[in-house]
Each structure stands twice: as C-alpha cells, then as structure tokens.
C-alpha cells in the first residue's frame, strides 16, 4: 500500500542485521559462534516485541488499522443488507434534509455580501420620531433588533449628495433604490425588478462584472443615462446567457438603453428579500419620469445608502457627522422638524429584511430536520445494540484473546462511520431536490422571489461532513461502548441468560425515546395540516374559482391620466369580448396579493366606533365586485356611468359601515379620505359583504371600493381579473393577443389563476404541512422498525421460556398479549415523555398556526393514536411468532 | 568482554535516549547496533540501551527529520541500516544538549553536595 512508509520486512531486516553484527562482534571478542548468536539474542531481549513496537512507532499504522477496520466494516454491512439499507436510507434522509435546510439558513442568515471587504460596509438609517419632517417616504421601515428603535432606510437625493461631499469618514457612499421596470426586448415586454444605482455603486462595493463593464460614475449624469447592467439570473432567464447581449439596444420603460455588462452570479444587489434583474443609473429617474423618485424635491425620501467606513474610524464619529449633515438638509425645507439620530447598521450581510421575516420559519425547519436526524440516529443506535447482541460471541472471543477495549470500540465506530458516510453521500444527492422544493414554496407568490444564493457548495458540504461525523458518534458510541462490556464466560459458552438483560433495557429505552421524538413530529404535522385546512376553509367573501388574473402597468410606457384610464377601459372591453370570458374587470391591487393601500377616513357628523385605524382602499373598475362575486347587501354596484360621472361615489363593506356609520343606513351619506377637511367627498352608493383583500390570514378591515377614474393622478398599475366559463388558463393566450393588439409594448405579467395566487400566498404553510407530515410519517415508520427489531430479538431470546409456558398450559392468546403488552409499555413510556415535551415546544410555532391553539387536542390525540397504532402493528408480527412457538421444538433446542 | 547485569546501571530517563543517539551520530553515520554499543562504551558501561526502545526512537527521530537512514554495508560486510545526522538534527542536538546541561546543573544545586556513605 502506498502509505506504508517502511515495510514490515524492512524492520525485520534491520533487527536481524543488528543481531548479526552483535554476534559477529561477540565472536571477535572471543565467544564461540554458537554462543555469540545466542548471547546477542538474549542481549537484545524480545525480538518480536521490538519489531512490533518499531512497526507501531510508524505514524501510518493508525491509518492502516483504519483501512483494515473499514474493510471489515464494509464486509459486515454487506452481510446484512436489510439493516444496511434501512440505516443508509434513514441517515441519507436525515443528513440530506439537514444539508438542504442548512444551505437555506446559510444563504439567508449567514452569507456575507459577495463584495470586497463586506465587513467595512454600514447601512445608513435614521431613527423615526414625532419631530421628523413631513416627507414622502419610499423604502423600508424596520425595527433595529440591536437598539429596539424604529428606523427608516430612506434619504433624499440631496442628503445623499451632502453626505458624499461632507462626511469624510466613509471612503465610499453608494446609493440605490429598488424599482420595478418594464423591459421590452426581442419584441416582448415584461416586468423586471431592478435598482437605480449611483455611479460609484459597483466601484465602491467592489462588485465585478462577469462580462462587459459595470455602471461607472460617468454614466450617472442626466445626459448619459442610456446604459443598464444585468444580473446573471436575469441574463439567464431573459437572454439565455447569450453573450451578444452586451451592446444590444433594448427598452426600459420605453426608453432606449444599451446593455453594457452582466454581473457575476452571486451578486444580487444589497437586499436579498427581492431578487434584482437589472441596474440603472440613478439619475435616470429624470429621463424615465419616475412618479415619486425626485433628484431635486427635498421632501422626497427614497434613496437607500451603504457606506464603506474607513479603517480605524468609529461608527460613532461617522454617525455624528452624518446627523449634523442630515440636520442641515432638513432645516432647508422643514423649519421645525429635526432628525433625532442617524444609526449605522452592519452591512456585511446586506439589508436584512428577509432575515427578519423568515427567521422563525427557518428555525422551525431546522428543528424539524434536526429531529428527523436525531430519530434516524436513535433508530440506528437501537439496531446496532441489537446487532452487537448477535455479535456478542465474536466480541467476547476478540476480548478474551487480548484485543484492547479501546481498539474494539474504534473498530465498531469505524463501522458506524461507514454507515454514516454512505448516508452522507446519498444525503448530498437528496439535498438538492429538497432544497429546490423548499425554495419554490418560500418564494411563492412574489414576483421575483427572494435572491437566495442557496446551493450545495463547499460550505454546505463541510456542514454535511460535520453532521455525518456527529451522527456516526451519536448512534455509534453508545452501542460500541455497550458491546465491549460483555461478561466473557457466558458469552463464550453461548448460553442465553434469562430475564431482561441490561442490553434489552437499553434497547427498550431507545425505542421509547424514538416514539417520543416521532410524536413531536406527528403533533407538529397535525398542527400544520390543520392550520392549512383552516386556511383553506376561510370564507374569503369572493369566489376564486374560474378567475384568471394578470398585472400590467402601461404608465411606464408613457400612458398617463385620462389616456391611461381610457386605455384601461379599452383593454377591459376587449378582454370581456373574448369568447369564453364571462366578465372582465380590474383593481389597483389584486386580491390576496399581499399588497394594500390604506388611509384615514372622516365622515362628518358621525363618530367612528374606533378612533384609531382608517380603511383600506381599492380602486377598481365598474364590474369588479360582480366579477369577483362579492355579494351586494344594499344599494347598488359601481356602474360604467360612475366611471365617467363627476359625482364621486364609493361602495363600502359591512365592516366599514359598522365602524364609521354605526347604527344608520349609510346610503347617500358622504365621507372623505385623508386628513384634509377640504378633500373631495365620496357618497356611499352600496354596501357589500366583507371580503378578504390583502391576505387569507389578515382580518377583514373596513374597505372602500371606488372607481379608478376618480383620482387620475395616482393611476398606475392594475391587476385584471377575468371570470371565465372554461378553465381560466385556456383563455390566457387570447388575453395576451388582445393586449398586444392594443399596444405591443404593454407588459402582461404574473398571469395566473386567482386560486393559484391564493395557494401561493400560503406557500410557507403548505411547505410546513407537507414537509412535517412527510417527516412525521418517516419517523413513525422508523419507530416501527425499531420496535419491531427489539421485540423480534426479545421473542427470539425467550423462545425457550415461551415454550415452557406453552407446555405448562399457557394459552397462545396470553403469550401473544404478553408480547403486545410489552410493546405497548414502550409506546406508553414514549408518550409519557413525548406529550409533555410537545406541550412545551409547540408554543414556539404559535405564530405560524391559524385558527387552532398550539395545544390543539385533536392534533395531540391524532398523533398519539397514530403512533400507538403503528407500534401495535409493528409488535404484531413478533407477538404472533411468539404465539406460534412449538413447545417441543423450543425445548429440544435447550 | 561480555557485559553483565550490575546494579550500577542507570535506567534511561524518558527523552534522554534521543539526545544520546544524536550525540553518537556526530562522529559519523552508524547503524543501530553500533549506536547502542557506542553509548554503552562511552558511558563506561553505566548506560545500557534497551534495544526495544532504540529502534522506535530511531524511527521517531527519522520521522522528525533529525536523522536520515540508508542501507549500507558494515565493516564486517553485513548489510545494515546506517543513520546519519541532518542539519536540522545538528541544531536540535545543540539546543537539547545545552538544555540538558542546565537541567543537570540545576538539579545538582537543589540536591546539594553528595552525602558520604550513600
């Protein structure tokens, strides 16, 4: 073997030569040759022992022994294929699931931004307060977990320029703002999520392009904004990795631009909650006539900023300087306002909005996969204990001829390592599809989904190797230690000791632990399945069946105001005329899309039952309520005449009436939106039943439906709803053709059925219900295998005893019940451990549940009954075998 | 003359064998038996090398790169594995020897003058 540094024969030769030389010299000194030889040997002492010690001093010996153990282990495993199959499969599942979840956790929680020295980056935020200026805010607000303060991440463009000019503590300050664009290329238009970025963005971050060049400072000037840079995933999705895309002219919001570069695959902007498709120079907000983002308005706050702190500079000194500068820019447009504090947040992992929203889900997933691995290990430990019982004689022989206990444990652990290694390898294979399933559910229902760099990479593999090793020790050590503690004499004689041996007690305990762990998973499965049932049973207040939806936003194609309203009317009419379409309508936000508009409401002359909280708004077309089949309770629906009429009208829901017009017939009464008493009054013309708007889980809130034509300035995107006679997707092609016939450049995005939309909105719940049920089922199966193994062994050991009992007149049913009873005791002990544990643990998943308590009796009872039934079935086979023991045969064997 | 077991022999302290081997090899390449004999003779028979320890020690020194070995022929024409000092080993010897001398001196001071009669 190549690692054997010196052959054993080489050692022997050396020692032989020693003896020869010694005897030569002794002979020279006067001894006769025969004596000399003998004397040299005596002088030397134990030659064989010396050879062995010399051999063992070689540093490769442990490796050689390891290889020996490995071969022996593989041979032993080959001899019991059923055991090996169960072991490897269950481990593969456990390790694979853990690997998949780890890669997800790694991508969301642990990975640094793929930029130069990410540790130097800081996110600029300011703490929100009552004294803050009146601003139009676009961006994110979040709770800073370190300080417990509510912070905003948006600044005005002027503030950003000021920071760059007068805060020297940062070597680079880069700005960006997320935005959705309409991209037209190859004759097709579609939505794309992108970022407006400052000219120094890529250089300051140290993010390199894969091909072409990044956006440069000189691109970021109003006269030269015609360039964009793509992310790798968009290049792949939209341009099929075609390198000739560099230099190609495409259109963004109908403006011609040139693609100048594609970024390297991992770079996805600075916020992982939404994947980015492309980057546009920030000054292009002028050229693209962005409705909210302004370079000049001091109260338009939409720019998000990352800074690279110079080495040796404290966060404190930088924050002080930023605050002073920000205060100066605020002073110029809002006299009595001030910004309390500028807070620098660590930027090493980017903006952590996704981290905050999914950390609970990831914790649950980690716990679930951790449990399944633990169960697999417990099961395996149990099977190994049983095996070591079968190998008791072999081990006793080895021990009695002088094998060291440590050496034997090492050998048994090597066998465990072989099992775990095989499981780990197969686990890596399993991890990939599992990860893909999880990613699909987690990102469901959003346009692009989160930008997760989740894949099976070296980091993941290192984790897997660790998990494999841990598993091997977990399930291997106890049985190995136990195996070497045999009583040599009876083991060698092959006698079976009656009664319950300590080994069997250990096995029984392990089965109970397995039952307890499985119960945890089954209770979890019950809770999540019932949550999903409750969510599916929610009366949404509208009929989702037979509805096709899509989103569009022609305002990015230059349509505005009345022209846009007319276009929407024309599109609606043309779609409604498609054969197979019952009716077509639209609303500003789709139902159950997770997006909403809200405002405060004032009805002069009425006192709302609840002072706080306003109402949700939904701009919609005339036929929207009837298309969605939201039932009208009183008054009338919005009509096409209302869309054109000068009188502002609204339909409200029952909750709205209850809050703002308690106890009266609201028809004909008026109210206004917002805080300005001079605002336009809306007359209530109809009342509809409560219907869900934002999401399935959200409570229905007071809602105002009013014609989209009433406030033309705020008119932008729309979600069309199309009620069909045929299956909804069958008219999808016709809808696309109709839109294209009206204007080829208008995007048709997110085309799906309303039912699909609802299902995607509860993707996490569906993932939990499916995954935890599957794992719960596997856990129950493993528990059954464990229980079967122990009982089968116990029955085999007690064959003689059972034979005597039967010979003495015991009834077969009694014997059968005896075995069953023992099994049920193990299950009962498992329940006694598992139920209190589950009661203590399920409250951690409380906010993922819906409509049930974490102590839901049905879930607990269901889990307990299921695991008991599985246990009874598993015990049935050995129990029947016990009842069929032939007393004569059994006693003859003795 | 054949050596005889006497009570005056000193059992080697752990680690001192390495030092003695290195020192012996200063005079040139030597095989295992030669090293053992040289130590015994230089110490005027008061140090007896346990052969069971000698070869593992040689192996250890070789692994550490302080000595190197190759098969050669002994003076009475026997094949033997000859060990020789490497540069690294020479450096190791210097530092270990001076350490040893300091240790011996220090222990000597602690024990004080030898008592008569013993």
List the helices and strands and how they pair.
The complex is a heterodimer of chains A (894) and B (118).
Chain A: H1 8-28, H2 33-44, H3 47-57, H4 61-79, H5 81-110, E1 121-127, E2 136-137, E3 141-143, E4 150-152, E5 155-156, H6 157-166, E6 170-185, E7 188-197, H7 201-205, E8 209-212, E9 227-230, H8 232-239, E10 249-252, E11 255-263, E12 278-281, H9 284-287, E13 300-309, H10 315-331, E14 342-346, H11 353-390, H12 392-400, H13 405-442, H14 458-483, H15 488-493, H16 502-537, E15 547-552, H17 561-576, E16 581-587, E17 597-599, E18 601-602, E19 615-620, H18 624-627, E20 632-635, H19 640-644, E21 649-653, H20 654-660, E22 670-673, E23 682-688, E24 703-707, E25 718-724, H21 732-742, E26 749-753, H22 754-761, H23 763-797, H24 799-807, H25 812-841, H26 857-883, H27 887-893
Helix pairs in contact in A: 1-2, 1-3, 4-13, 5-11, 5-13, 5-14, 6-10, 11-14, 11-16, 11-23, 13-14, 13-23, 16-23, 16-25, 16-26, 17-21, 23-26, 24-27, 25-26
Chain B: H1 16-25, E1 30-31, H2 32-42, H3 51-64, E2 67-73, E3 79-85, H4 87-111
Instruction: Look at the structure and give the mean pLDDT of chain B.
Output: 80
What best-fitting shape of chain A do the alpha-carbon axes yield? globular
Supply the CATH architecture of chain B: Orthogonal Bundle
- The CATH superfamily of chain B is Winged helix-like DNA-binding domain superfamily/Winged helix DNA-binding domain
Fraction of residues in helix of chain A: 40-55%
Proportion in helices of chain B: 40-55%
Structural class of chain A: alpha+beta
Biggest beta sheet attributes of chain B: 3 strands, antiparallel
Radius of gyration of chain A: 37 Å
What percentage of the residues of chain B does DSSP assign to strands (E)? 5-15%
Count of alpha and pi helical runs of chain A = 27
Largest sheet of chain A: 8 strands, mixed
CATH topology-level fold name of chain B: Arc Repressor Mutant, subunit A
State the strand order across the main sheet of chain B: 1-3-2
Report the strand count of chain A: 26
The parts of chain A where pLDDT drops under 50 for at least 5 residues are: none
Q: Gap between N and C termini of chain B, in Å? A: 29 Å
Determine the strand fraction of chain A and express it as a percent band. 15-25%
Largest interface comes to: A-B, 27 and 23 residues
Give Rg of chain B in angstroms: 16 Å
